Here is the input.
Amino acid sequence: MATGGSAVTFIEPPAAPPPKSGASEIKEAVSHTLYIEARPIKPLALPIYPAKALAAKAGQATVGVSVTVDTSGRVTDIRSSILTFSTPGPFAGDFRAAVETALRQWRFAPAESQETEPILGLDQPATRVSRSEKVETTFELSFTFTATGGVQLSPTGR
Here is the structure.
C-alpha cells in the first residue's frame, strides 16, 4: 500500500511583541526587555497525506499557514500565510485539513517577555529578571507533502 509523506518548515520565527507603554524613561535606560520565542515540544505530529489525494496520485503539494500560540502553549488560530505559497488544486482543502489536524496536536513552551534590571553594588555587572510574562505569538509554517513517502521535519529560523 502506498503512503504519502509530509514535511514542515518554519518560514519566519515568532516576532517579539511590541513594548508595553507606560514605562518611565529612567527605568528604560537601566532595564532591558528580552523576548524568548515559543519553542515546540517534541514529538510534533506531522500531517498525513490525504488518502483521496494519494489515490488520485496528486503528487507534491505545499500548504503555508500562519499559526498563533497562546500563553498556555496551545495553537489557537491557523490562517493562510501571506508569506508562503499554498498549492491550489482539487485536493487543496484536504491538504489544509491534514495540516490543521496535525497542528491542533502541537504544544509549545509559550513565548515570554522578560524585563531585566541591573543588580547594583556588585563588583561585576549582573542583571536579574524583574518581571516575566507569557505572551501570545504568531509565526509562519510551510508544509510540503510528497506522494513518494517519507516524512522530514525541516525547521528553519528557529
